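Because discrete structure vocabularies remain unfamiliar, we first show an illustrative case, written as a sequence plus integers encoding its fold.
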Amino acid sequence: MRFKTALIVLILFAMLLPTAHAQGNTVYVAKIDGMITGYTVDQFDRYITEAEKANASAIIIELNTPGGRADAMQEIVMRIQNAKVPVIIYVYPSGGMAASAGTYIALGSHLIAMAPGTVIGACRPILGYGANGSIVEAPPKIVNFYIAYLRELAEMSGRNATLAEQFITEDRSVTSQEALKYGVIKVIATNVNDLLQKADGMETKVPVKGREKVVLHLRDARVVYLEPSFKDTVIRYITDPTIAYVLLNLGFIGLIFGFLTPGWHVPETIGAIMLVLGLIGLGYFGYSSAGLLLIALAIIFFIAEALTPTFGLFTVAGTITFILGGTMLFGKGGDEYLVSDALYETLRIVIIVTAILLGLFFAFGVTTVIKDRKRKAQTGREEMLGEVGRVVQELNPEGMVKIRGELWKAESKTGKPIRVGERVRVVNVRGLTLIVVREGENPDDEREV
């Protein structure tokens, strides 16, 4: 009897063992899309930590980036190499890239996969913009450091170190097919499921912390997607330097327009929000305080042109200062960027166009508004003559009317009652009281009050 009981227990245990193994075979998938900034470091750390807590078989990072800050890249590489689970960098989707800083991150991972139609490479360091608007190339000692750093990442993982060096010295990029051919990546996969099937049984290119190189068991794994938070989504957009720069300037415009046209409060409220978002985005990407001060000075010049027209002198000064500030804004002294030249060329165009539009806006638009407000203020009582409004408190003969959205004390010129809701026209002003008649009536035919 005991023998039969033990046999049944063993059979049940054998049947349940594969199921338990399958349930434990879990792969986490997260997405990193956009510039590599200080915030991206937090994202990588959070995603990898989640996979470590769950003792996942691996975590796949879907990466699509044009590059970013060099210091952030190095922190991410260190976090990957200290991960307790294999980190697979998957350049995805088709049309995406792992350029500049993304190349270093990929070469520092345990396994690299790419989707068809993606590229990797082109990671020469630069120092941002100079005061003359040209891209500041990193000096030889910095370039040589990153060459040695990338070669070490490639050699440590048994990847093509010669091609890795060309990514810097020649700004070379390769397609997924070329990357596979030259030994930079191990897998080309159309999607995550395809990647799981193709990478199953492969060995990581570098050891996982606390273990030697790990053989990946990914086939039929349970996939857990780590969805980005709302904050992640917002930060992703505002850390794009072009978007952050535009937000910063729209914020300045909103504040100025609100202060010059008080009473509505909407422009300055929206402007303040945009200004803060722009500063947050630039803070993650990195910016020069000197550039920000020059932009503020340019805004002061524009305001001076609007308040005291100088036949374009302040407008020209503001436009030139604005362009200088914009270019210097992305030259954070002493820090290196790993981004494509194309990004800075786009920024240059945005900075110049924005400066010209702002100059025209303040030279003509704001100046016209302020002149119009001054003209109305100088007209005094004549400003209200002929205005049409509606009675909100019966005139018998005095009451209240609403004109231009404002309430005024009013008096019927004829002395006859005018009911609530009737439309009236202003024919005279006595102190702060409007003298009105029904709309359509001729005041000359009526007696004076």
